[in-house]
Amino acid sequence: MDFVGDLTGHAGRFLAAQPRPLLAGLAGVVVLLGVASAIAAVLPRLKPGKSYEELRLRIVSWWGMVALLAGALLLGWQATTAVFAFISFLALREFLSLAVRRREDRPAILAAYGCLLAAYGFIFADRYMFYLVFIPVWVFLGLPALMALIGQTKGYLASAATFHWGLVTCVYNLGFVAFLMRVPESENLPAGAAGLVFFLLLATEFNDVAQYVWGKLFGRRKILPTVSPNKTWEGFLGGWITTAALIWFVGPVFTPLSGHGLAIVAFVLPAAGFAGDVTMSAIKRDIGVKDTSHAIPGHGGVLDRADSLTFTAPLYFHLMALFALDRF
Amino acid sequence: MRLLRFLLLVLVARPLALFMTGADVSGRERLPLKGPAIIAANHASHVDTLLMLSIFPSRAVSKLRPAAAADYFLRDPVIGWFSRHVIGIVPVARSKAGRRAASGEGEDVLAPARAALAAGEIVLVFPEGTRGDGATDAMGQLKGGVARLAEAFPDAPVIPVWIQGAGRVLPKGASVPVPLNCAVLVGEPVAWTGRRGPFMDALREAMLALKEQAPPLRWSDEP
Predict the structure, then answer these.
(1) Which of A21, A36, A66 is nearest to A250 (CA)?
(2) Residue B119, phi then psi, degrees to nearest 5
(3) Above pLDDT 90, what percent of chain A?
(4) For position B141, what pLDDT does the model report?
(5) Which pLDDT belongs to residue A1?
(6) pLDDT band for position B98 (50/70/90)?
(7) How many Å lie between the alpha carbon of B19 and the closest alpha carbon of chain A?
(8) In the predicted model, what is the mean pLDDT of residues A129-150?
(9) Which residues of B are less than 8 Å from A158 in CB distance?
(10) Within chain B, what is the greatest distance between any pair of CA atoms?
(11) Residue B207: burial class (beta carbons within 10 Å; 0-12, 13-18, 19+)
(12) Collapsing DSSP states into helix, strand and coil, what is residue B108?
């Protein structure tokens, strides 16, 4: 019994040390998912005949993703960086598996994973300037040079560009999420560094869901039929306005943004999420697949879920750095 | 020994396979969980065996026995010990198979596989007989041993499997594996119809139909 008492005591102190808004935000997400789960459980009885398996899988996977990310955020920057390094690895592996065509590029694939390790190493070492130039400059030059040494020139330019696109989106851009955790406590943050990351993830995923729901309910006019036939103007604009409102009203709870900075993030982030989504759709359409893998049941691959985040993460990071942070 | 094999498969092989390949399985519910059962898969890489050993649920993995060439896997005592006790192979004496076919008699090279099936185990066979060219995903000529096993155990389900992409992770001749996603597609069992020829045709068609559903493998010499 003492052991149980000890454990709850530890858990209580652990949670008490966390910023209040962060705990409230996580609780809010749990409540939202609980409501979604309840609706998904009741729907088959209200409207029988249709299959709700996909919806059920989707929600189960949401629970898994929320548990993983919430756990990482509560445990701190080390756990968050490790989790995002792993997410980057899964995304990059999906991308390279679909996009790379030349068998001679096997050493370059191995080198790309090495670049991933080095980039996240800079986050662990808190070397911001190294991180900023590593992939966009040094890998940009080094990997094509390695590929030239391999000696296969057929399809060389396309392949070199493919590697760089994959590394920037899957590693460099997603890495900014982890780097946000390195904002020191001395800066006046309403919900700690974890609050910054929490709000980025919340706004990005909320935008995905809001666009989907608006599109399902009111979607008529197709916005990009050749790239993403299910996307509509109604979904895009409805999602944009809803997410902008969320950022404007809830943003100050988790971030130090206010005034102009907050307004700009609210205005730009939903559009960036949409841009990330359709960019990945264009790539998938080019390659001829619907999903990048089946890693997340009901959602598709990691890259299918993180596509909008590859665009919103660097945008949010740099706007935050510009308007509110001293560290970056 | 069985416990060691179980632990190595669940704690080492499975995470390793997940890391190297992502093990994107569709039709997992069609995998047989008890023997006698036969799984027939295409073969492009040693990764195929690792993957198959990793996608079975823990309660069934001890039953899985990959059929493997005795001349290749038992030539060296260390690799031989590992192959027998960790991978759990049932040896097939490839070199004798040809002579047997020529003379019509001699040692029964499939005896270990039959014994495994009789003991209620799940035998994994690669009917191509050897690893194909890793770059292309073409399927080689299927050898008839799987039909002889199906004939001996007509009630054992023969489950076709298509493994996509293992030849990129570790092609024949390469020594360094590279993590890339692999898809494993498990099909409906192919019924033993009483004759080897039509059975082999049905198996081949079932495997090629699974291949059609696999994600595109855009891996070629000439882009």
Answers:
(1) A21
(2) -85, 5
(3) 81
(4) 83
(5) 56
(6) low
(7) 9
(8) 97
(9) 223
(10) 49
(11) buried
(12) coil
Note whether A290 contacts B: Cβ–Cβ < 8 A.
no
Contact A103 B219 (CB under 8 A): yes
Nearest CA to B161 out of B47, B34, B38 is that of B38
Contact by Cβ (8 Å): B65, B116: yes
Percentage of chain A exceeding pLDDT 70: 100
- pLDDT recorded at residue B106: 53
**Cβ contact B215–A98 (<8 Å):** yes
Confidence of residue B96 (pLDDT cuts 50, 70, 90): low
Least confident of A151-160, A207-216, B95-104, B162-171: B95-104
Q: Where are the domains of chain A?
A: 78-180
Are residues A287 and B218, on separate chains, in Cβ contact within 8 Å? yes
- State how far the Cα of B139 lies from the Cα of B208, in Å rounded to an integer: 8
CA torsion A136-A142-A148-A154 (nearest 10°) is -20
Judged by a CB distance cut-off of 8 A, whether residue B155 touches chain A is: no
| ipTM topping 0.95 | no
d(C-alpha B110, C-alpha B91), whole Å:
8
Q: What is the pTM of this model?
A: 0.93
Q: C-alpha distances in angstroms, A188 versus A292, A300, A319?
A: 40, 39, 17
Taking each helix axis as running N to C, give the angle between helix A140-150 and helix A106-124, from 0 to 180 degrees, rounded to the nearest 10.
160
Contact between A113 and A92 under an 8 Å Cβ cutoff? The reply is: yes
| CA-based max dimension of chain A | 69
| Chosen CATH of B2-63+120-213 out of 3.40.1130.10, 3.40.50.150, 3.40.50.11240, 3.40.50.1970 | 3.40.1130.10
* Three-class DSSP category at B64: strand
For chain B, the distance separating the N- and C-terminal CA atoms, rounded to the nearest angstrom, is 48
Q: In the predicted model, what is the mean pLDDT of chain A? A: 94
pLDDT in tens, A178-216: 999 999 988 989 999 999 999 999 999 999 999 999 999
Q: Is pLDDT above 60 for A86?
A: yes
Measured CA to CA, the distance from residue B138 to residue B170 in angstroms comes to 16
CA distance B118 to chain A (A): 36
pLDDT at B203: 92
Which of left, alpha, beta for A139 (phi over 0: left; psi -120 to 50: alpha)? alpha
* Own/partner pairs, A227-234, CB within 8 angstroms, 24+ separation: A227/A278, A227/A281, A227/A282, A227/A285, A228/A277, A228/A278, A228/A281, A231/A277, A231/A278
- What distance in Å separates the CA atoms of residue B100 and residue A84, rounded to the nearest whole number? 57
Do residues A160 and A105 touch, judged by C-beta distance below 8 A? no
CB contact, 8 Å: A38 with chain B? no
Mean pLDDT of chain B: 86
**If you search the block for the tokens 């597609």, which residue do you land on?**
B185
Measure in Å the smallest separation between the Cα of B91 and chain A Cα atoms.
32
Interior angle at CA A270, CA A265 and CA A272, nearest 5: 90
Which residues are CB-contacts of A142 (< 8 A; sequence separation ≥ 6)?
none
